[in-house]
Design a protein that fits this description.
This protein is of the alpha/beta class. The strands form 7 sheets. It has a 7-stranded mixed sheet, with helices on one face. Strands 23-25-24-27-22-26 form a 6-stranded mixed sheet. The two termini are about 35 Å apart. It is built from 23 helices and 27 strands. The protein is about 30% helix and about 15% strand.
Length: about 725
């Protein structure tokens, strides 16, 4: 398969419930597109995957989806709890393992306080587990120290959406709406590799020459745009905000702004314009490397598609967001979209492409440091009172906001930091920024507990490892990139010895003396989630498993006032107190770390087609690992020559924090001042040994996408 290839089924398949063929209708284990599939077979050994026709994937699957059943029969599957004794992880009973964890929790909190125990969650957990994990942390552990790996994925986009629109939902419209557009501007997005079936929604824009991609690399997505007569805005990493302000400048000065929309449906333009006015196109070209003619053509294409009612969208993703100024960057691109009058109108809009499988639902129900279920703020007295009533506790007993993800991890084992950490659905030894520091902090813990189905790099250094269910072995719900609530259905029984996180949290709550009930039936948990979310921004109160199982399409908010859900937000007004979207005064500040003579290149990280996130799952699939090959660094020929390197050579990429060993891939289309590294490998090949943890002041997103490096040849 090529980097952009993916497969369609040989015939049309059914909807979101089993119909035309035997099997279990569910959704893929990987990205936020949540492609529909049918699982057929009586055991993990013979389970097969077939795609189902569904609005998001239109009957297609990528290579990861097609091979997802391999995860269920991986030889390294954990089926017995492990407890570290005399330095080695050894098998233990569930009672023994849970007693070790419970005793450590009680003992540690008695000496050091409630916040000495912390929880780290994941964006791949079902809605039920994300909700229950937040409840477990705040009610059973009574700790404020809970956050999750989605802080490193969607937090800047979420913060900007709340800032400008009053609400965060990745796509405030169905993904199928994009399929009608003749102009789509993608910002730091490479769906050809990260979610290939998404490309079906870009065909019309590509065929019309209106697909435009802002990215430092000529990715397969950018190449598709260029091949169709569209645009590649090949900017220097970390200059995205300057590009946004320059395009806003052009939209206003060249007459493309929708002044009626700005006057009637927005506020704050006069605060932002004095900043944007200074970003003359020629200045932007010097900073970003994007030609004035290219910027002008991109703005004109969006305006032209808007004016001819052929659809225009601006979509951001991690490339523009994973910066220490990511919130302001997304805010600036929202301002461009607002000036053009795109958000809140049919056929046009602004959205962000959610990456993780439950990246949307995972950030709505309480596993973020500052949130309660329903996307409520934990420091809001009314929100605390509502959720406390559902949980049957005094609002005063709820802890306040805790540390964000990297701040939580970097404080482990220090005075005032957590001494016991429970990790669920994450692999921070590989995925965290400045990962060497995170690994050191994990080693300083009194107890590290990891729940996983394989011995990930983080599980391998744990003191207790708890074997839990895989995706096809559990019931639940997830929420995809467009805010659509989906059913995950059980297709087979888990191996003997594996247990659901819902069960282990219930057991631990009892062992540490918590009297609050923690249901283990996901259907019961979801019904409680519905009550807890009622009245909140992400209201699920009218969503039921029965409605989902009947095939209804339900996008939140879905409440008694909106029982059919809300597939398209903002058509009648934005979720701000006055109903107007906000322009916010932001400026370009650039990367947190400058390149210099010692580190003359800018490294940026990303994904490849065959792997997902830290690679803990996909590196176990033989077909995917073989196709992806070894860790590599992508460089321009002149850059390789200057370092004495050729294509296929082994090199060290060195930053101020560490080094990564990779095979050199020479690419004429790379910028000479940029190198690219995928972040799926571990050990000496870990890309996040290089990245640093400068944090966005609003979202606390680390700067994954720009750090200063040099190349060193290996003798």
């Amino acid at each position: 398969m090529t980097a952009t290839s993916w497969r369609m089924p040989s015939r049309s398949l059914g909807g979101d419930v089993p119909s035309e063929q035997a099997g279990v209708a569910t959704h893929c284990a990987y990205c936020g597109l949540q492609c529909a599939m049918t699982l057929t077979g009586s055991s993990a050994a013979d389970l097969t995957v077939s795609p189902r026709r569904f609005p998001t994937n239109r009957g297609g699957l990528c290579q990861k989806g097609w091979t997802s059943a391999e995860l269920l029969r991986t030889p390294g599957r954990l089926t017995t709890p492990l407890v570290r004794r005399d330095g080695d992880l050894t098998p233990a009973s569930w009672d023994e393992a849970l007693d070790v964890v419970a005793d450590a929790i009680v003992r540690t909190q008695a000496v050091y306080g409630r916040d000495a125990v912390a929880v780290f969650g994941g964006g791949g957990l079902t809605n039920e587990k994300a909700y229950q994990l937040g409840k477990f942390a705040r009610v059973a552990l009574r700790t404020s120290q809970i956050d999750y790996n989605g802080r490193w994925c969607m937090s800047s986009a979420a913060a900007a959406g709340i800032r400008c629109f009053g609400l965060d939902r990745g796509l405030p419209f169905p993904v199928t709406d994009i399929g009608s557009a003749h102009a789509v501007l993608l910002l730091g997005a490479n769906p050809a590799e990260t979610m290939p079936p998404f490309l079906t929604h870009l065909v019309r824009a590509a065929d019309a020459g209106g697909l435009m991609v802002a990215d430092p690399r000529l990715t397969p997505t950018a190449a598709k745009a260029v091949d169709g007569g569209g645009l590649h805005l090949q900017l220097r990493p970390g200059t995205d905000a300057a590009l946004a302000l320059g395009m806003l400048h052009l939209a206003v000065t060249e007459g493309y702004a929708d002044r009626g929309f700005v006057a009637e449906r927005t506020s704050g333009f006069d605060d932002l314009w004095p900043i944007a006015a200074q970003w003359l196109p020629e200045r932007v070209e010097r900073v970003t490397g994007v030609a004035v003619t290219t910027m002008r053509a991109a703005v004109a294409a969006l305006a032209r598609a808007r004016d001819t009612e052929r659809g225009a969208y601006v979509l951001s993703a991690r490339g523009s967001e994973q910066h220490a100024s990511g919130t302001d960057t997304v805010t600036a691109f929202i301002a461009l979209a607002l000036a053009l009058g795109l958000p809140g109108n049919p056929g046009t809009g602004f959205g962000t492409i959610t990456g993780q499988g439950n990246g949307q639902g995972g950030r709505e129900h309480g596993q973020k440091a500052d949130q309660l279920p329903g996307y409520r703020k934990i420091d809001d007295p009314a929100a605390r009172a509502h959720v406390a009533a559902v949980w049957g506790i005094d609002p005063a007993d709820l802890p306040g906001p805790g540390r964000s993800a990297f701040e939580l991890l970097s404080a482990l084992g220090t005075d005032g930091g957590a001494r016991v950490l429970m990790v669920h659905g994450s692999n921070p030894v590989v995925s965290a920024p400045d990962a060497r520091v995170v690994a050191e902090r994990l080693a300083a813990l009194d107890l590290l507990v990891v729940s996983d189905f394989v011995l990930s790099e983080t599980a391998a250094v744990a003191d207790v490892v708890l074997p839990v269910l895989q995706w096809a072995e559990e019931e639940g719900t997830l929420t995809n990139l467009e805010g659509r609530v989906l059913r995950r259905r059980k297709a087979l029984d888990a191996p003997v010895g594996c247990r659901s996180e819902l069960e282990l949290w219930s057991e631990l709550a009892l062992r540490i003396g918590c009297s609050t009930a923690f249901p283990t039936d996901p259907r019961v948990v979801f019904d409680e989630l519905r009550r807890a979310s009622a009245g909140g921004p992400a209201d699920y109160s009218a969503v039921t498993w029965e409605r989902l199982d009947a095939g209804e399409s339900l996008h939140w908010p879905c409440s008694t006032e909106r029982p059919q859900g809300t597939p398209r937000l903002f058509l009648d007004g934005f979720a701000t107190p006055d109903g107007r979207a906000r322009f916010v005064a932001v400026d370009h500040v650039g990367p947190a770390e400058a390149d210099d003579a010692a580190y003359p290149l800018v490294a940026t990280t990303g994904r490849v087609l065959q792997h997902y996130q830290s690679g803990a799952q996909t590196r176990l699939v033989t077909e995917l690992s073989a196709a992806a090959g070894d860790m590599f660094v992508q460089v321009h020929p002149d850059t390789a020559d200057a370092a004495g390197l050729g294509d296929g050579d082994l090199a060290d990429v060195v930053s101020r924090r560490g080094r990564t060993r990779a095979v050199v891939r020479v690419d004429d289309d790379m910028r000479a001042d940029v190198v690219f590294l995928p972040f799926h490998w571990a050990g000496d090949a870990r890309a996040n040994s290089l990245t640093h943890a400068a944090l966005d002041p609003t979202s606390r997103m680390p700067e994954f996408k720009a750090c200063a490096v040099r190349l060193e040849a290996i003798a």
